[in-house]
Amino acid sequence: EIVLTQSPATLSVSPGERATLSCRASQSVSGYLVWYQQKPGQAPRLLISDASNRATGVPARFSVSGSGTDFTLTISSLEPEDFAVYYCQQRSAWPPVYTFGQGTKLEIK
Amino acid sequence: QVQLVQSGGDLVKPGGSLRISCAASGFVFGDYYMSWIRQAPGKGLEWVSFISTSSTYTNYADSVKGRFTISRDNAKNSLYLQMDSLRVEDTAVYYCARPCGGNCDYFTHWGQGTLVTVSS
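Output (structure tokens, whole complex):
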């Protein structure tokens, strides 16, 4: 089973600055590696599934890169509404086992 | 639009049982795999269980295997999670989730969550 490790656990960034979040897999990810955003008291929200697929309503300041075992979510210029917890996730082929990273909390500096 | 509406939460004693449900609308429920995902208080997301479109295949996280049973009723557009032999560590918000396509790798729609509290 693939283990996803996110870093850092907490990232303190000022509004307007760039944020870079990392997700590392214990073995190569063959399918999608996706990212979710979760705000307090809310269900997670799909952000982006690959470099060309942001979910509906997700602004272009969110981008992803990486392949194999190392993946990155970048937020180019932080807006106040971006401060939240971010999770990466992948799925094994069969039988399906969905794995989440432990999350990165993005907080206002 | 796609909606996943979950049943209300409950307080259960350790060793007890509870069934939670998720009512789907706005899409052809029977065309999609479905999953349950949980989140303990202050913790991250943990996938719990998966069920295929016709219930032929199911899978469970090791932490709940043998205690939880996922099921669905496509005629009623509903997903269920029967939780037996509950433990304190099962306390969490449980989310039902629908993938992007029938057999897609990730989740585009989530229910509002059901709080299950296991405590004496």
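The two ends of chain B are 40 Å apart (CA to CA).
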